[in-house]
Amino acid sequence: MEEQVSDVDRRVRAALDDLGVEYTLVPCDPALADTAAFCAAYGYDTGDSANTIIVESRDKPPRHVACVLLATTRLDVNGLVRRRLGRKCSFAGAERTMELTGMTLGGVTAVGLPTGLPVLIDPRVMERDRVILGAGSRHWKVIAPPAFLTTLPGAEVVEGLAREV
């Protein structure tokens, strides 16, 4: 597979390097970037996959938060996230996510997000030996120990963020 590195890929890598994170970059066929397809095609455990989901409130203007949770769990968007944002909220769509982060669905990561965007992390993510995250685009995944996530700007581990499926 030909190496494709975008500006957002460079931004994510620079953020990881600035944090001193030991990480591995894994190339990914963009058609296989969604978690289930990636894990099946490349032999990774879905229990190690951590998705980053951008949520927006229905405020005018809307407020946003990035939520990091294991792929084996479901985000409690109308419970804890709604209470955090103080208003009904929903998943940001692909276009809005790209507008806010510069990242495409299937590659969204908590690393290198715009300043001021809070990052909520489900505690189950922190229990893994390693996590597989998006790397900014659908061409790459990042594998790293999850402890670095708590060093990201605006990051907070929040009990009850996600539920078992």
Number of strands: 10
At the fourth level of CATH, the homologous superfamily is YbaK/aminoacyl-tRNA synthetase-associated domain
Give the H and E element order: HEHEEEHEHEHEEEE
Rounded to an integer in angstroms, the radius of gyration calculated over CA atoms is 15 Å
Main sheet attributes: strand count, strand direction, barrel closure: 5 strands, mixed
How many domain regions?
Answer: 1
What is the chains' assembly state? Answer: single chain
Question: Would you write up a description of this structure?
Answer:
- It is globular and about 40 Å long.
- It starts with 6 loop residues before the first helix and ends with a strand.
- The mean pLDDT is 94.
- The chain has helices at 7-19, 35-42, 77-85, 94-101, 123-126; strands at 24-27, 50-57, 64-70, 73-75, 89-91, 119-121, 131-134, 140-144, 155-157, 162-164.
- It has 5 helices and 10 strands; from the N terminus they run αβαβββαβαβαββββ.
- The protein has a single domain (7-164), classed as YbaK protein.
- β7 and β8 form a beta hairpin.
- A 5-stranded mixed β-sheet has the order 5-2-3-6-9. A 3-stranded antiparallel β-sheet has the order 1-8-7, with no helix packed on it. A two-stranded antiparallel ribbon has the order 4-10.
- The chain is of the alpha+beta class and 165 residues long.
Which terms would index this structure?
165 residues; YbaK protein; single chain; three-stranded antiparallel beta sheet; five-stranded mixed beta sheet; 25% helix; alpha+beta; 26% strand
